[in-house]
Design brief:
There is one protein chain. The mean pLDDT is 93. The chain has seven helices and 15 strands. Helix 5 packs parallel to helix 6 and helix 6 packs across helix 7. The chain has one domain: Metallo-beta-lactamase, Chain A, CATH 3.60.15.10. The longest helix has 11 residues.
Length: 267
């Protein structure tokens, strides 16, 4: 029986190189070195670690899945310079207007197609992401996540910078369960918002349970001072939830792989 594989190379921060359906997909490219990133009129963000792979080591990609373009910890200077190396950049509608070029903008629940090397295709659907507690959208700006589906392929969810389990539940209610989830899970805390603006470790474990995933790939939990949870906290939270076997060790520089046969894929 043929197997379907998702391979993830952890670059660090929000950047993950995914091999899926014969395509190379990159999440939120951020390749700058450590440093301070001003956030007017508030305090700056501090990057504490550089990427585990350089842009040249990543190479050209079929698509960038860009959850949003307006925060430096999701798209920095070197990340912007990388975008022309993608055949397409899929992002928010406003982000595509700002970026131009090869960017395709989607509102939540809109979809686009990517053609695969075997003459098939996958559907990429923009899904909601709430980058903070209720009532803070005017501070954080529009953000999306992504749902990827294809015939005989694992269903794949990429959360983007989402902090809300209600949003995860709404996605599961509308699209069903997923085989694999990439969860942005550092528990980011950024003034002046007095709550988390991405999933904490506990919420990431809850999200994996809600989605019914067979594998959870953590992302965006390292390399910045505003993260409150690292991989150790993720391991502990998934263990408490009885999901320790679902969490993959996608720490920066690591490569992890999920392999599902056709009977398991695309449930």
């Amino acid at each position: 029986m043929q197997a379907s594989t998702v391979t993830a190379h952890a670059v660090g921060g929000p950047t993950l190189l995914l091999e899926y359906a014969g395509l190379r997909l990159l999440t939120d490219p951020a390749f700058d070195p450590p440093g301070e990133y001003p956030r007017e009129p508030h305090e700056s963000l501090r990057k504490t670690a550089g990427p585990a792979m350089s842009p040249d080591e990543v190479g050209d990609v079929d698509a960038v899945l860009l959850s949003h373009d307006h925060h430096a910890d999701n798209l920095d200077g070197a990340g912007r310079a990388f975008l022309p190396r993608a055949a397409t950049v899929i992002t928010t509608a406003l982000g595509a207007q700002r970026l131009g070029g090869n960017a395709t903008g989607l509102e939540p629940w809109q979809s686009t197609q990517l053609h695969t090397p075997d003459a098939g295709s996958i559907t990429v659907t923009a899904v909601p992401a709430q980058h903070g507690p209720d009532g803070t959208d005017h501070l954080t700006g529009p953000v999306i996540g992504f749902a990827l589906h294809g015939e005989g392929l694992p269903s794949l969810y990429v959360s983007g910078d989402n902090a809300s389990l209600a949003v995860v539940q709404a996605i599961a209610d509308r699209l069903g369960r997923f085989d694999v989830a990439v969860l942005f899970a550092g528990g980011a805390w950024v003034p002046p918002i007095s709550d988390y603006v991405t999933l904490t470790a506990e919420r990431a474990a809850d999200a994996a349970r809600i989605l019914g995933v067979r594998a959870a790939i953590p992302n965006h939990f390292d390399g910045w001072a505003h993260f409150t949870d690292g991989f150790e906290e993720l391991e502990a939270a998934f263990a408490r939830a009885g999901l320790a076997d679902r969490l993959l060790p996608a720490v920066p520089g690591a490569t992890v792989q999920v392999e599902l046969d056709e009977a398991e894929s695309g449930r």
